[in-house]
Amino acid sequence: MIQKGIFLEQNQESDNLEKLIFIANSILLITVAGLINSIVILGVHGSAVAHSTGNASSFAIELSHGNFSYHLVFLISSFLIGAFVSGGLIGSSKYKKENKYGLLLIVESMILLLGDFLYFNDVEIGAYAFSFACGLQNALVMTFRGSIIRTTHLTGIITDLGSFLGQKARGVPVEFWRIYMNFFQIVGFLIGSFFGAFFFLEYGTIMIWLPAITCFCLGVSYNIWQGHFRKVVNL
């Protein structure tokens, strides 16, 4: 009985640690997404590289006027290709420690730096690279026990928070960690967006290096942690 109690206690500690890691990752990722969104939107002459809905509407409006915008087609296509690459690297929307989140973040950081280099030579080509990177980031969707990280989809996060609060108000049992995770995701996105805009206005698109370096460090850190986790499992 004593051994069983110790096992249950250790299992509970492991469960709490797993939840904490997921919540921390979600807040960090969405803060980085806020940085990227604000810098790119302000830096590429208003091109909504992170939001394909707006580009699709703009394309349809241009088409109704008899204009076929190749620029908007390339923006939407590069976003789609980025999401495709992300889906291919991760292979699952369910949160798993062995998924290649670290590799994806490192790739994203490289694409952001490439986009910044291209931007200074050709604004439109730079925008396509940024759109590709945003597609990578947007497709990084993780599901964990019914909760979802939507890194740049603030509408979905606010919807989840409102839904959980509504259920709680009605007396439906809702784990509290789901509520505060969504709340801090929103705060993280706003903080990232604020500092992205602030630094852009001070230094320009060179500040895309800030989320790029952050993504790289997160990716490397995750790979190191993942390697340690695998060693523990093997032991």
Automatic annotation (TrEMBL):
Domain of life: Bacteria
Transmembrane segments annotated in the record for this chain: 20-48, 68-89, 101-119, 125-144, 179-200, 206-225
InterPro entries membership: DUF1275
Keywords, in A-Z order: Membrane, Transmembrane, Transmembrane helix
Entry keyword annotation includes Membrane: yes
Pfam families noted in UniProt: DUF1275
PANTHER family in alphabetical order: SLR0142 PROTEIN (PTHR37314), UPF0700 TRANSMEMBRANE PROTEIN YOAK (PTHR37314:SF4)
Name the record gives this protein: DUF1275 domain-containing protein
